[in-house]
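fwd from M.: "can u put these together and see what the complex looks like"

so here's what she sent:
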Amino acid sequence: GQNIDQPTEMTATEGAIVQINCTYQTSGFNGLFWYQQHAGEAPTFLSYNVLDGLEEKGRFSSFLSRSKGYSYLLLKELQMKDSASYLCAVRDSNYQLIWGAGTKLIIKP
Amino acid sequence: DAGITQSPRHKVTETGTPVTLRCHQTENHRYMYWYRQDPGHGLRLIHYSYGVKDTDKGEVSDGYSVSRSKTEDFLLTLESATSSQTSVYFCAITEGQEPNTEAFFGQGTRLTVV
């Protein structure tokens, strides 16, 4: 079967750095996405990785290792508004998105 | 923001009644999707559409049907609602299915079946 694993919840301090991990086992791989979802709102796109390595976008970076079935999202200079759930999704061989259950990130002052 | 509107935003219905949720887009995107989101689960695909009158099942399609008679509208029907269908339902659109194509989501419909 297809499986994507993320930690259920993480806590970090405002101004710090946090890394959210995602491991996947899917039938095929056509890229990995990270989305942010604030409570009661729709998911919004953060990043896309298809090749190994690090993609940087401002305070957010995403890393991919296809051989290890592993990705992480790195958030720097945390702000209170970063409190949200972070969803990892893989596009499989049928070009469908397979979603992890999400990681709820709690930011403390 | 992508022009996706879901209606209704909230609904409470009784077990055994039919329910229809609507997704309307103004982006003229070809692909539309219905997902449900439940605690402890990732977004799970119910049905999707790749064009007018072209639809296919997702991983959790039992008890649901869809229709797409116009590019802009994708309807999800719960034929006879059950308590297990209490969930938050999200509509999403993509321009295509190329690997790097991101999905845009509607604001969600919170459905409670009592």
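replying to her w this: The interface with chain A takes residues 35, 40-45, 48, 58, 90, 97, 99-100, 102-108 of chain B (CB under 8 Å).
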